[in-house]
Fold each of these.
Amino acid sequence: MNRVLIVDDEPKIVQLARDYLEHGGFEVFEAGNGQDGLRAARADRPNVIVLDLGLPGMDGLDVIRSLRQTSNVPIIILTARGDESDRVVGLELGADDYIVKPFSPKELVARVRAVLRRAELVPGSGRVETLRVLDITLDVPKMRVERAGEPIDLTGAEFTLLETMMRQPGRIFTRAQLLETLHGVAFESYERAVDTHIKNLRRKLEADPRQPRYLLTVYGVGYRFADA
């Protein structure tokens, strides 16, 4: 049974999320502040963390910073409707997805399942499992990435986007198409998240993110992975 850690200081939200996640077959445990959430994440090793950014004391952004030093556990951040800048910062720090309060608990369950699908890639599907384009190599079952033999650490969302584009180098993907690979359905209001994930990928892959060699922007359309 997959384990979900909810880190939020609002008991009603925690209870609502717990009820729907448990009904969906997840084991749920919780923490009411950032420090406790960090301890629970390290001690109990959840498969997914649902993390409120507006926590007392150690806020959610600091939790992400600390976790990403040692862990790539999928993180879904919860933010207030007007906190767009916090959402962007959370994604830049390595969160995989976000959902805006007040949220649909059914959507939350769907998002949890989506990040788990990305994190639990299963070999033997008949698809090519090692991708090599230019000097970037992806070992898909092991979720390992190398550039010219040097390992690069990616989050689940970053890996999924990179794999999608590397399977069809040169093809132009719209933001909606890339978003659909992450969620299984395109949410128009979340398309800016794709830009943030691409920015993070460039920071990790490119020698100069301002002049990318691999992840190219097609202005007014989307992105493509270089084919030469």
Amino acid sequence: MKTGMDYSKADDWLIIEDKFDNRALGKCESIMSLGNGYLGLRSAVEERYLNEQRDYFVAGTFNKFDEEEVTELPNAADITAIEIYINGEYFTLDQGKTEAYSRRLNLRTGELIRSVLWESPNGNKVNFIFKRVVSLKELHVVAARVEVMPLHDQADVRIVSGIDGRMSNSGSQHFSDGNKRLYEQKYMQFVQTTTQSKIDFVHTTVLNFTMDNFVPELKSSIVMDRRKIFMEYSVQIPAGKTLVIEKISDVFTSRDRELEGTKTEDIQKYSLEALKLAEDKGYQTIADESAAEWERKVWSKTPINIECDDPYDQLAIRFAQYHLEIMVPDHDNRMNIAAKGLSGEGYKGHTFWDSDIFVLPYFTFTSPKAARKLVEYRYHSLPGAHKKAAGNQYEGAQFPWESAWLDDGEVTPVWGAADIVTGFPIKIWSGFIEQHITADVVYGIWQYYMVTGDQQFMHDCGYELLMDTAKFWVSRLEYNDEDGLYHINDVVGPDEYKEHVDDNAFTNYMAYWNIGKAIEYYQLLKENEPELFAKLSVKLELERVYQSWLDKKDKIYLPIPRDGDLVMSQDKTYLTLKQVDLTKYKNQTNIGTIYQDYNQEQINHIQVSKQADIMMLFFLMEDMFSLEVKRANWKYYEARTLHDSSLSLSTHSVLASDMGETELAYQLFNRASRIDLGPNMKTSDMGIHTASIGGIWQCTVYGFGGVRMLNGKLRIEPKLPKNWHKLKFNIIWQGQRLEIEADEQGFTVENVTGTENIFYDYHGTQYRVADKAVITYENNI
């Protein structure tokens, strides 16, 4: 990269920024963000800059600014800013000279370290080291450490830091100005309350100072103003001596499970006492405990090791695992993963189908406890799904395109960017007519059940979800007298460059599959679980609905490959649309450049795709279509797909692996992994791309590792790219931890748990592994 992140200088655990550029702050703020699933902290630096974005989110704390806006995750008070003045000069890299600079995120430990050698405009040379960690062990704790060493002359230093409640979400202020207090002349506390949802946030912080392991003589004073509380400190640092500043902070909210129903003043006491315990540990112990938790929870349990020619590939998969871990709220099943995780304000903290199809599988295969929290969220959000279905005059559960709190229902904004032709804002139709998400949710839940065997979840939640959504789909179907078939008209499929289409192939097939699963489990429960069946029958009117499933399922219109070239139409009209030269857009540096030449209405009438629906259909319903059909449609749609969705490249990579096009799959994997990590300094300004992050894991494990769940069975068919010499990873299947290692000669499957026999398919043959099984490729392929 021209600025920052030179991977040739990094080992495969470090994200490195080696040059500061205040015009591109968003990149590192996002990809170096810290978190633990409970809270997310965007990595803005300690000193302030014009283009910075300081975001601090607590999962599940949604608020609605006013009736004209939708629910969003509010940006809480900032606790990261530390202003430092050296002999009266403000420390900023916008002034003076930066003689050395490095910022590193250690993916293994979750610690962010920045080193700066700075010469002020007046010639004061100072060495700074900034460290920061969000504890993976203590979910409420954020710790920071700053070292300041003047090199040549004594320095009079002033430090200003505290809690700043003047944050907003792009101008929308979600908090009232709450109580502020200083305890014992050192502990600062600030209470915020969200304006609409009335959630209390209690922030408490403390700063401590040492020099040569002693507390230096310093002056301090408290500053309270509107929406902020700060302390100012003054101290002299002799040349060559190092002042160490430790800032320990915590946050608790009235929505926390353990604090529900607790009075605000009691939460304040709780926060203060918790902070004192963290303060006693100090920065290094907090960081060490967090690093140990990373090792215990992630790296020792779900390692992915790649022996390859390019160390970037190993870094990319660890980057993905790191961000997957810090975005999952596995402490609470009332919330899910947002489209930007907790790394930025993009998509307002809302959950999309990205979570169910691209992110959930990682946890399903590696951390079933976390996965269960995510699928339970979908069950607990059924009130919102019922609200949406009823509002559209449908039955059953229709899941919102964008979800927030459990009973919010649809929270997709109505208006988006400007139309280049009309000059008006573009209406966002996804929240109205992008309906495939209902089946996507069910697919993720069914995959979870097949992989984990979690029968208790199905008994408590899963069967009801399957049937409630099928109830929606049959009420959504539209009968056509002319062909005697049921159609799904006026929708948006995964390809959002095509709005208001009829018979979108992906949507129709997924609805068909959803209803089919409901029929299957209806019959199973009626025969084997009469008590549960009776309960669900009353709740969902199953006797009536079941007959509707039987009457309509096999009459749903399903597009099929056309004669001759085997191409399937993405929707009713796609293959009849005008074709234009897409070379300019296929070679674009930034996504979405087609909107500079066409508006949405014009794009609707061109054979161009944001992502190919048909490829997505093949990805989920792999065994429904032949290899010949897949190849024919790949050739047709890849030429028309701009990959303007971050969901697209990884899907195409996995399908390329399935078709044996391993090197093409690797090229697509490489492009997918660079959506956030790559040289484009603007792609991640609004936060990282969670679907792409999950997609990197899918490219690796589904594609190159060849792992797939097909109709409840495990398939393992590795296909390594030529510059990967060995791939080793773990999955959990039916409660057993399997270690899979593949190289050019073959692969091994070891049952590390070793308490049950596991069966898996390899090219149509079933194998059993009790302890360890070895497969050697025929003809050394």
Amino acid sequence: MLQRVISIRNVGRFRNSVAAPNPTFTKHTLLFGANSYGKTTLCAVLRSVQSGDATPILGRQTLGTQVAPDIHLLFADGNRRLQNGAWSAPLPQISIFDGVFIAENVHSGDVVDVPNRRNLFRVIVGRAGVALAEDEQRLAEESRGKQTDLTAAERTAQAFAPPGMRLADFIALPADPDIESKIAAQLPLIEALRQADAIRTRPELTPLAIPMTTDELEPLLAKSLDGVGADAQTRLVTHLERHHMREGGEQWIARGVNFIVEDECPFCGRDGLDGLPLVQAFRALFSDLYRGLQSDINQARQAVDSGIGERMQGAVRTLLATNTAAVEFWCRFCQIDTIAFPALDHALAELRRTHELLSELLQRKAQAPLEPIVHGTDLEEAKRLLGAVQAAVDAYNRPVAAANAEIAARKQGTAAGDLTAAQSVLARLQAVKHRRDPAVVQACDAYQRLGREKRDIERQKADVRQRLETHTLQIMPPYENRINELLDLFNADFTIARTGLSYPGGIATSSYQLLINGMHVDLGNANTPPNSPSFKNTLSSGDRVTLALAFFLAQLEREPDLGDRIVVFDDPFSSQDAFRRRQTIYEIMRVANACRQVVVLSHDALFLKQLWEKCPPNDRSAIQIIYHPATGSKLSAFDLDDACRGRAAAELDDLLAFRANGAGNPREIIKKLRVVLETHFRFAYPGAFLADDNLGEILRKIRVGGDQHPAHDSYQSLERINDYTADYHHGEDPRGAAEPPLDQTELLGFVNMTLKVVNALPT
């Protein structure tokens, strides 16, 4: 039993809960606190000590402080301390009904998701079922882990198997003591068939060719222009000599003739050029025939470059290297004499010299196209060199031609064979041999062992799952019946039906439907269309809390150690109808009679007062959470009788009735707003207000205290309600002035505001 909260430091609003005197917890402990004062934090503390997990508390460290949470609780069997991020010892015998229980086990927001159903399953099946579910989940996790190992072992073993062979077939290959000789006999056949295919597809040798002769160059070099008079030729030569223009002069003049425009000299501007014999000679010489000759010369130069230039010389080396490689291949299958190009470097040097000589001759011809080049040592030397190179090429090509004849005969004579079939036979023989390698044996044995272990785990899991399902079938029907009995006791207009078991994600999970007006409604999920009936659009928020409370109470009834348990209820009833309030009180007292201790936290003092009256006077205590912005939340003794005495309780009920169905005289209802507010603030903040402070004085004290006053957050709402009610609470005006007219809708808005301020607004 929890006897005292010695201290809660640096957790949420509890900067330091120590207060004097420190209230004592009894078997029936009722704890009053406004919303956001620390009730949820206190439940989190008890849940943390129940599980021994300090992580949720560390996440609630008071904002603005660097000091770690520190908690000291006194239980009947000793202290429990949270220091340095860890509890001294857990206390498992604690059951808590609060928002966390609802969100984890019943619904999150307005939907029931898979985690809710998984957790609810554990609530439904009890400890024996949970043990089976944990065994089933453990075996499922072991199975998944074993599958991971098995998959890795399969990849390792499969890597040893020949491509295309199933691992099972590879593992099943039998040992063969004569395997080596069988492989040795198969290899020559494979080699022959493999080379036969290569013989069919391998190209022959390529003959060498030098695409260049001097046969067409010689007449071109000797060529002049036909049809041009000797006088024009003489005039040109004389002019070039006279002006020292032998080098390139002819081309210069040939180009210049094209720039004569309207018989005017392009250089000096002189007119009448057509009458000059020299100009007439130039025009005769540099006609279309001249330009045609220049074109022939340029084409000849290009032919020399492509036929024996640098690129051709490189191609010769490449072709010879390719043929050399081909000869190495074909020598294995054909009788081929040695094929080599003698003195290749010398031949290429002669080819380069030939290219230089011919290029120079053509350059000279290009500079003076009209001058024939008939006899010259350069041309003769080029002819000689080119002839020597061609002779070497012919000498090289003769054995090439002979080799190609041999190759063609070999290609034709090579018999076709089924290489694929022979390779398949060899592959299987090699697989039989490889299967007995030590590393392969180890990998295959490991794979087979893991497979057996995986199958054994699956058999165990199937057995546990069968027992779990049998247990579930025994537990779920009576549990469903008990839930529905409780829902009936709470006067709910729905029940649950078709409670069952499924395994989404391989984890045991509960399933059920709502039964409303005889119709079965699926719970749905976040993706359920809004126009389809589901949990989120068929149950009110109050119905959802009622359902969760029924689940919790049904679970408690089956706890074998209920007599040793501390049961905590956090706001189990949010002001709804009076019948559910009474039934909730009845169920809490029934639990209190069966457990070691019951702790009820609520923001509704009237609800706690009704519980208080049911508790044995000598074994009950009332505690209040008081909050101040400067010092945080603290626990202190609380007088429920004083807090709920007189007309305030009745008038709060009148406000609730007016809100629910419009009952009551509006002019009487508006006067009750101030009474309810004044009573609430006097008892919710006993250190801040006096017993006779009215609403105006309460507002003044909050205003003076500013944002450091504990009731500061309520100031704006209080001021609005005070302004609204001012004209109605002082009695009739002696001057006979009538009270302002009342708008029912406006009054309802201020009733809601008042109920919200005193934490009594139904949810």
Amino acid sequence: MKPVFSAGLLLFMACMGATSVRSPVQWLSLVALLVGGLVAWGRASHWPRKVMAGLALMLCLVSARCGTGVMPQPQPGDPSLFIPRDGTSLAVRLVGRIHADGAVTNGRCRSLLDVSSLNGQFSRGRTELTIDPCTTPLLTGSWLELEGELRRPQPGSHPLLARGDERLALQRTWSRLRTDAMHVLRQDWTPLADARRTIAERFADLAGEQSGGLLAALVLGAAQVSLPQSLREGFRVAGLSHALAASGFHLSVLLGSALACTRTLPAALRLAAGSGAMALFLVLAGAQPSVVRAVLMGAAALLIRESGHRSRPLGVLLVTLVLMLLVHPAWGRSVGFQLSAAATAGLVISAGPLEQWMVQNWPQPLHRLAPALSIPLAALFWTLPLQLLYFGAAPLYALLSNLLAAPLLAPLTLAAMALAVMVLLLPAALSAALLPWMIWPVQQLSWWLISLVNWISQWPGAQLLTGPVHPLLVLLFALGLLPWLLPAQQRWRGLSLLWLLLAVCLQVHVQLRDDLIRVEQWGRQWLVLRHRGRAALLSSHGDELSCRIATRLSHGLGHQRLDWIAVLDPVGTDQQLCWNALARTLQVEQRGRLPLTPGQRLQSDGLSVGVADQRGRMLNVRFGTRVQRLRRSDLRPQSG
């Protein structure tokens, strides 16, 4: 029953976004999902076999449709269809409506624009708008008239760098418009966007940027809030990213509180209170995949509970995924959807058995910890294959951080939601008088949570960096995890250990090989030298963007710190901290002179760079036993 279904669902989630294994392995997982669905509900008297077989088959078909790699295509009238096919830009005059708020970041604004007309012709589609310089935030519902250059988004030059074309295509956007000026025609009435903006701004004013941003994210989700990057990074490294993303946890807190307050009232009123709580959550957080899944599952569970029947969580999850993928197939490629579905599957399938196993095998004093540990353990290990596949990293102290943060998260979430309602409903004068006093204790709780996250994220090895993991290794790793996530399947644990060990050994072998990786993007070049698990870097530029990309490349390849960095460009004092945090040794160009003079070399064991000629035009780089000659001007390999 559940083991077959579990294997199919976990395999499917692990390989959904992997292009190289979509054909054989994904079909195998879908067949396992179908068989598991039939077996899991075949004996349930309340669910006819044919109905459940049909639902399982629908999920398989829809999943196959989402996983075939077919991206959405622009429809007639889309702005991208006007761009010349030779890749050149197109000078345009556009009229369109801002789709979502765009904050000012480093003097630049960016948002999606729903296009109405292009060069006086009717157009229907979206483009990504960038205004630089920008001093005024872009507001949802603003109608703008713009002139600028329309281009197609370029694919990322390396898999570790963001692929703007795929990201935009999933949002049904295939073009980019860059301009330096805008003319506002009018502003539509947008009550939902105004409400979200009011909550975020009011929280930031009362509690500060970090605490206010955290409280707003607990209500609206991080996708709706402009959070400091340091805060996002800290929560990610500590394994608490789910706390910032609107998800089932936030809905369970709100829905549970609403039902607890109305438990003595008639069923109709309890149903109305629960429905109102879910509607409020959906309206404020928006129709994100994780939010829609949580609301659908919550609504189904509420209806079944109030009708006097006992819900089957596994069946509710299956029906929810079917409905979501039928209505919006592109969600199948969303990382947020996959993580949400995998975490929920872990809670439904593994949390209960894990808790029972802990109670049966642990000493009596530790039995109280079983519920608190089984939930984060199930969610963590069910999402671990996806984390390795997409991010090549996993938080090492996620279990402990979830255990310590749990007493703070639930009251913080409930208090933030209550304050958000007060911000929207109280008159301005009463709100100004009451909210500063009421938010003070909540601000102290948020400060404790942020301090806890920052403390844990600074622990040694807080983030386990594995580097890029091949999808087949992810699948092998997922298979090895299953018998440990289902305690009833203990007879398979010996074999699963071999699978886990094989996956780890193969990944270590990949990480220890010698390699030279060259990345070029936005007129900048980076060269990563790798030898026996260590790495060094050459960068053509020393600005903030170059350091951010270098950090992303280093961590994405599995290297927390580099042996050394040579920057063929001056580095400002404000960027010095970023570069120093990335490597043990940093050499930069100063006053037009190379970091190294002829005859000098910057080296560590198996990795080195040196000047090859007296004029400093050529560089010799060595990684392991291999040596290549590079031209300083563009870091491109030359023969010799």
